[in-house]
Amino acid sequence: MVALQVYFLLIPSLMSIMGAAQYVMQDAALLSYIDQRFLSLEKRVEKCSRDLLEYMDEFREFSKAVLSHLARLSTDKAELKGEVENLLMRVEHAQRDIDYFGSVMDSNACVEVHEDLLKQQLLEEAEEKKRLKLMLNASCDHMLAGIRSLKVVKKTGGKHGSWMKDPGKKHAKVYLLSGSVNNVVLEFANIMAFMENNQTLKARRVPLPVPWEGTGHVIYQGFLFYHRHGSLNEIVKFHLQRRGIADQMLLPGAGRIPAYELSPQTKIDLALDEQGLWALHAEPETGGNIVLTKINPVAMAVEHSWDTPCSSRDAEAAFMACNTLHVVYNSPSGGSSRIQCVYDVLGALNARTNPGLHFPKRQGGHSSVHYNPKEKQLFAWGDGSQIIYKLHTEQK
């Protein structure tokens, strides 16, 4: 009986213990499930991180490929632009050749040339000469007979550069353009201010929106005319006071080879004389001879062009004076500069080679030589020195 009572007393305790054990087993299973879920989630997060890193690496490679492709496209675009400009020039030359051969064929078809037609052609040629003389205001009755003396005004800047005054203005300002590629013009109040030491730091700085190329720029009537860097043959007209581009033009046929063999940095050389603005360049079609072009500075348009017999080989610079081209030659090692070819566009002098005009008392080359028609002097840049040459002239 006692044993039965003990049995009935133990049953609730055993049931309680078994229930607690069952709860413990359920909690352990839940914890195990939660742990597995966390492990699975960690694996998924780790895989997501790896995928993200791989995507970032792939995106970097894709970005590099796109940037490289865009750079090639930019290069191809520049080359294509140059080829199109070259093609347009060649088409223009071909059109002139076609017109010429057409006229020759037409003339050959006519066995007998009427005297009236011949007289008409002669009259047209005479009218063309008159028109050119009127256009050039042929009041120049003098020619260069010698270079008398030189004065080294200052030595500032590197090997390449140019300096000048504005012959179209009454002021005495001096302008310095240092380097063959730059975008800052230095303006001095006068020649004395330019000659003073340390005045370069006090000069008025005129920044350009696009840089120049070469040393063939000029300043005329308050405007800077220069060959735009990076372009084949674009000439920019820049207003110095308003500091803005006033106009632009393309010079047909120019920019493919240097204007002068000894100054390869200059593809287009601009010049001034008593008649205004000119452009000088060389073309492969002329065998490297210099082509001379008269430019209207107001309309920024070509008025007339001449193929000259003056070669660009061993040439270092050139300048215009009184409708006449003067080409300066030297040796590649740098010797005595001399004017070896002279070409008068009006035919008064025709073309003369080796006229015996030497630059005095100086050895070395010139980066630029510009004629100032107002002062009848040459403003030259030679090995970092700014030089003035005085000229001797005589009647034609």
UniProtKB/TrEMBL annotation:
Disulfide bonds: C140-C322
Signal peptide bounds: 1-21
Cross-referenced Pfam families: OLF (PF02191)
GO process annotations (BP): signal transduction
Coiled-coil annotated residue ranges, if any: 70-97
Keywords: Coiled coil, Disulfide bond, Secreted, Signal
Keyword Oxidoreductase assigned: no
Superkingdom of origin: Eukaryota
Domain Olfactomedin-like: 139-395
Keyword Disulfide bond: yes
InterPro entries in the cross-refs: Olfac-like_dom, Olfactomedin-like_domain
Cell compartments where the protein resides: Secreted
GO cellular component, one term: extracellular space
PANTHER family found in the cross-reference section: OLFACTOMEDIN-LIKE PROTEIN 1, OLFACTOMEDIN-RELATED
Name recorded for this polypeptide: OLFL1 protein
Gene coding for it: Olfml1
